[in-house]
Specification:
The protein has 11 helices and 8 strands. About 40% of the residues lie in helices and about 15% in strands. It has one domain: Alpha-Beta Barrel (TIM Barrel). With about 350 residues, it is of the alpha/beta class. Strand 1, helix 2 and strand 2 form a beta-alpha-beta unit.
Amino acid sequence: MARYDRSAEDHAAWIAKVSEDPLEPDLPICDPHHHLWLDKGHTGWPYTLADFHADTGSGHNVVRTIFLQCHAEYRTDGPEHLRSVGETEFVVELAEQSAASDGAEIAGIMGEADLALGAGVEEVLAAHEEAGRGRFRGIRYITAQDPHPPLSMGESVAMDSAEYLAGVQKVGSQGYTYDAMVYHPQLPELAVVARACPETPIVIDHLGGFLGTGPYKDRRDETLAFWKDAMTELAACPNTYLKVGGIGMPMMGFRWDKRDEPANSVELAEAWAEPIQFVIEAFGADRCMFESNFPVDKRGAGYVVLWNSFKRIAAGCSDDEKKDLFHNTAARAYRFEQV
């Protein structure tokens, strides 16, 4: 997918045009989805530990976070199937720095492994576990594919193949979590995977890959109807969780990044309240978790603004439901202490 075309400095100035005080600033948050990279990553600018701490320390009560694989600092030599372990080696050093600082702690690491290895993925899991020094929580293996070329980003493995299903099953049997990144037309396939791998906790990323660009532009009502049916089917699988986020990404159809000013929390909440409230009802608050997807979602809004939008959308939820949505669901999915 195309990188962003603003410099880091220009983007920081653009984000600063909208400033908000954090809503419900004492509510504990586990941000279950963020990235780190030293090069231009998926945005066109680096996102370092200092950048991460600046965002998570900007007003909301972020107590811990989960790093998600993003092809950062993979090994450049050695066996191909083990090169992704370099990312865990890179992040664990930053995680230990975060634990020793006053900033939010990177408490968990989701790495990558080729699940088409089938049961053979166990070797990669063991290598990540050793590298993670207690922080490794599982695998994200992106299978997001679409005939529209700019959207294609994942592996072309067939999700109904015996090898892939064996790999997903092995992740669960070893006590780990599987993060699934697909696009919304693939959600029925993912439901088949969830039913075939009932012992594997499956976390569905970014609202199930809701698309609103390319051939899906100006088809929101049609997409929403399909997506609701597919999400209802996935919600019937008790081993599934849903990450509620990704709403700042251009692929979702709202080009916040093309505006003179970034979105504010009211605008984000108005655009996404209906689908987000639908999935909270379908899955239950105890299986939904809000995510920042930073810095990718930073293309559309600042960190305080993004979490304010989630708090606006969840305003009608009970205190216990808010604890789940903002912290405890992630804690259960990734095996941390709840609040």
